[in-house]
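On to my pick:
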Amino acid sequence: MRYEPPAHHGLDVIYLDSHYLAVNKPAGLLSVPGRGLEKADCMASRVNLEYPEALIVHRLDMSTSGVLLMARSLEAQAAMGKRFEYREVEKTYIARVAGECPLAGNIDLPLITDWPNRPRQIVDHEVGKSAFTQYERLDYSERYDVSRVSLHPKTGRSHQLRVHMASIGHPILGDELYAPDEWVEGQSRLYLHAQSLRFEHPFIDEWLIVESLSPF
């Protein structure tokens, strides 16, 4: 599939201090450069045009929009890297999924790369890495048979939310890897948005919530 990043109309900076900055990443844009010059345009490179010191802390899937946090020094990058590694960052995503999702639940399904079909991930109870997601249904449209849900991943596996929701029979709309064709056709994007990060700031001793409200 050809990479066609969205046009750049300036950064949407949603948080900035002397240690960190957070931007609202648009759907369809890589977080970091991919292989080849045609994939050099990404969120990190766009940020570096204005903040050349900025370093990536975590990533979002290309198709996912929302909060992307970057560090403004190696020290700040290492400090937040530990927050993510030790699962001390509370993440909230918003998604639109197929069907009438239960009001709330937990998904505990181990994941591993499906190597013959990369970048797909699959559930594997023998050798998969632990992956845990909490979800809540926010509303349901009987007319369209679509639920809007809040997702809270407690681990950070690749494609975790996409695989977990598909595994319980409620794939995310527009998900070309994991949703049946009827939930992909006619959709303008993957309906998954990283809405907020909550964490204890490593340098100013207070809790922060960095937020970008879902566009859907």
Q: What stands out?
A: The mean pLDDT is 97. Residues 1-86 form a domain with the Pseudouridine synthase fold (CATH 3.30.2350.10).
